Amino acid sequence: MMLSGDYDRPYAKQLLEWVGLKERMNNKLQQLSGGEQRRVAIAIALSNKPASLLADEPTGSVDTRTSDMIMDIFRRFNRELGVTVVIVTHDLSLASKVDRVVAIRDGMTSTEFVKRNPNLDQAAGEAAASSIHDVHEEYVVLDRVGRMQIPKAYLQALGIEGKASMEFDGEKIIIRTPKSLE
Question: Who contacts 30 (Cβ-Cβ below 8 Å, separation ≥6)?
Answer without folding.
Answer: none
